Amino acid sequence: MAKTKIVIVGGVAAGASAAAKARRCSEEAEILILEKGPFISYANCGLPYYLSGIIPKRDHLIVVDPPFFKQRFNVEVKTGHEVLAIDRVAKTVTVRDAVRDRSFAEPYDKLILTTGSSPVIPPLAGVELPFVFTAKTLSDTDRLFRFLLERSPRRAVVIGSGLIGIETAENLVARGIETTMIARRGQLLSFLDPEMAEQVARHCEAKGLHPLVNERVAAIRQDNGRGVVETESGKAIEADLVVLAVGVRPNVTLAKEAGLTIGITGGIKVDEGMRTSDPDILAAGDCVETVHLVTGAPALLPMAAAANKGGRAAGANALGRDLRLPGATGTVIVKVFDLTVATTGLSERQAAEAGYNPFVSYVVAPHHAGYYPGAQSMQMKIIASANSGRLLGAQIVGREGVDKRIDVLACALYNRMRAEDLIHLDLAYAPPFSSARDLVIVAGALAQNYRVGDWRPITPVALRERLAAQNQNFTLLDVRTPIEVKSGVIAGARHIPVDQLRERLGELDPTRETIVYCRVGLRAYLANRILAQHGFDKLLTLSGGTAAWPYELERP
Amino acid sequence: MAKTKIVIVGGVAAGASAAAKARRCSEEAEILILEKGPFISYANCGLPYYLSGIIPKRDHLIVVDPPFFKQRFNVEVKTGHEVLAIDRVAKTVTVRDAVRDRSFAEPYDKLILTTGSSPVIPPLAGVELPFVFTAKTLSDTDRLFRFLLERSPRRAVVIGSGLIGIETAENLVARGIETTMIARRGQLLSFLDPEMAEQVARHCEAKGLHPLVNERVAAIRQDNGRGVVETESGKAIEADLVVLAVGVRPNVTLAKEAGLTIGITGGIKVDEGMRTSDPDILAAGDCVETVHLVTGAPALLPMAAAANKGGRAAGANALGRDLRLPGATGTVIVKVFDLTVATTGLSERQAAEAGYNPFVSYVVAPHHAGYYPGAQSMQMKIIASANSGRLLGAQIVGREGVDKRIDVLACALYNRMRAEDLIHLDLAYAPPFSSARDLVIVAGALAQNYRVGDWRPITPVALRERLAAQNQNFTLLDVRTPIEVKSGVIAGARHIPVDQLRERLGELDPTRETIVYCRVGLRAYLANRILAQHGFDKLLTLSGGTAAWPYELERP
């Protein structure tokens, strides 16, 4: 067999992984990376932190350069080379060399498309103004960084509140720039359910990042030399700098024009082995559609770790191997100032949309033993199927230890665990690291209590709806101590401390629906059990208690 | 049905959990805790940190007290009440009330044994001396703490190097006490394989805790008013204070004398529902034998989290519920000064003993993106079955983020994952939390590379044995850069940097077995692949490279 020639279109995460893996599979193969931009294999996810100086040197962002790739892997890299078209019959790609201003046909035996994704540019007046930036590539960051140094902007507007938006905004605030973040929806970080996002928004506000939700940008304009972002609701926000971060879209034009199958999500359709509909073309990274392992449905999950794995599989499979990737569970983590915010699997909203009957619970607890110094509280939301008990997703907002719990839950999701079986995990416990009853274990116990009927939760969102309704045909019962109650109650609550409940049962009407709450849910659960055994059969517990209550409390 | 009377023997972790759960299951039941000691429900695992003041107040260690239990749970607690015997026919226990100096028979419908474990007191001369302590219970800690305050000991010897030994020793060192730790085996922390323990020992020494391995204590004596610990090898170590921490043993005398089945490990035999061989007696916590979920064999795993879960199940099942616990995977974590040391599943030694053909790999990598400030390296050892690929166990020594990876691996073990499928986990990545290729993902990739035959590892222990043999019929090849080589090499290595390997293949003999190493293993793997494709077919890679090499390096 003649030696295989592999051409890789795009050389950042997936492309570089594909090249390195292909070389490890074959010393014989000829491997060429064609990269449109000036750089390959850089630390995309680190870019926002370079803006503030948390990552102090630009060099730190460059993983490897073309000479390294040649020397280490015997892979030829051509930057500034854009692939314009694929001729699948001739098995060539048309390449545009921008520097030398020429085009040529490059033959391939196997083609790997790692064309990535691009920021969505909203169709707004003013997006072309010189103080408007995107923040996706190293080139974007270079431009933005130069602007920061040269113009010392005092006010910024970030349009969009996803990962790139929020990380960029945080690092602008760290530079002392007064920053406003505009979100189309009613919340930041749309992968979160609203009540979790609400806590993130409050933290942003406290840290000097001003979230403006439910706002659509109408236009960006320059007004007497000053930038202004106008919203459809009529707000005009001054901005020396605007960052567009409304999302990314897979780069599939090349694939589409070549007639490759595009999935319903808009990403290139590939099988488990990263093979496209053409047997000689593979694809990986942000440009492909993957499978959401919870729903089994196609999904766009443009994440760095998946790009590396996909590139590795594509590189091997281009040489006849058979590495397979089953998909992803949609895990996301982001630092938001002092908070860590993470999710895996489905949100409550997504679970409902996917046709599940979701059972939702909250756990609020410190990240390690409360008696060991430095314990910091976190809030975990667990979404499970009320029918099968299967874990469907989780969201966590906290400080320390959020990454640990989300990774354990991602592993549980991969293994299609039932939520109640989380209690069986033998998680590592010593006081500096966790609690004897870790949050994940407690989540398992709650799910078990739910299944056997010991407990029915109500979410804060649902309780607020019930409270807002005209006909409040239920008792809201606060079972905390008198001292806790002084710090604020949920409007309309009656107060009987759990330790007096057995003696004061006569004050409550067992025929009336009763919704119980405490600070995190443990005492409310006990109260619920006491009431259930005394003839109260319409009982709900506010999951997560006042600690997970995202709304205001009232003076008692 | 008359109300059920539940008597619980022992009120610390499992006992308190059992009582609380039983009450949540039934408001009707009569629940009595009989606790031999003066305290219930205290934070056993926090005790060592009280010795140094890291946990500043003794109150922080007390979870709840008897009046609280009465008020909150309507559970009667009798401390200072030792159960001396069980009459299974009459369904009574004989109770000794030490304070009132009387004994009485207490009837039960359901009995729950949560008698815990006790420190093993080695049969040594001198263990009764007044400066010799154990460190298991709050009472032990109170005695030891008083001694520390009153006598200000300057030198301590801790006999034993398990969890309690090492945590106690660390906190003595934190008080400025010159501390020696004596281990019978050739290493500290016997749950680790020796090469991992070696790194812990070095760290201890650097922090001022002196480990003395392969030493058996012959006697403890007092010599002109000074304590001395004598070893069988003839050493005499001065000690103002001696702590015995050679292990714990389940307290099963009561169960044994009552004729309950004791398992082969010496713990009380229980089913998944914590039921003993007597249908009216349940047991939970340190006193019971559990199932090791990797081997399926009975095991003693006396851990706090398991005690809480077991107590909960026993409390429910005493009232006719059917909660089941499948067992545990043997997860352990311990802070050792600045290190975090953790394991789950089987060690390499245990895997071999259990009849597996273990495949071992090491991953050395930073806990989060290397370019993000504060990255700290950790070393992960993965043990898998070479035959089935199943993950069998893991050990990690590092600083930050060790707890996260061990918990993910514990979840993977629970789900009986193959090691190579770890690559499929969708772990949370952002630069402050992990790497795009997290250690767990890399471990999966290594296992996959092993399965397809791209790579054969050799462990540091095995390589050292090979190097010590008379007949060194192999080439040891160092593929690091010249600068790295200057900092030390493994004795006998030839040096060809990986980036020159393709040109310098002629310098090596392809018929000779070749063992390749670099700093962590990645370049050695590439070198291995280059050599394999050029006719070298006896190839091994030193897993973990020099970073995981626990022995001295030589000047090149």
Please give a handful of descriptors for the protein shown.
homodimer, 556 residues, alpha/beta, FAD/NAD(P)-binding domain, Enolase-like, domain 1, 4 domains, five-stranded parallel beta sheet, 26% helix, 26% strand, globular
Describe it:
Two copies of one chain form a homodimer. Chain A is an alpha/beta fold and 556 residues long. Chain A has four domains: 5-117 and 249-317, FAD/NAD(P)-binding domain (3-Layer(bba) Sandwich), CATH 3.50.50.60; 132-246, FAD/NAD(P)-binding domain, CATH 3.50.50.60; 342-450, 2-Layer Sandwich (Enolase-like, domain 1), CATH 3.30.390.30; 457-548, 3-Layer(aba) Sandwich (Oxidized Rhodanese, domain 1), CATH 3.40.250.10. Chain A contains 15 helices and 30 strands. In chain A, the strands form eight sheets. In chain A, strands 3-2-1-7-18 form a five-stranded parallel beta sheet. A five-stranded parallel beta sheet of chain A has the order 9-16-10-11-12. In chain A, strand 10 (155-159), helix 5 (163-174) and strand 11 (178-182) form a beta-alpha-beta unit. In chain A, helix 1 (13-25) runs parallel beside helix 8. The radius of gyration of chain A is 27 Å and the shape is globular.
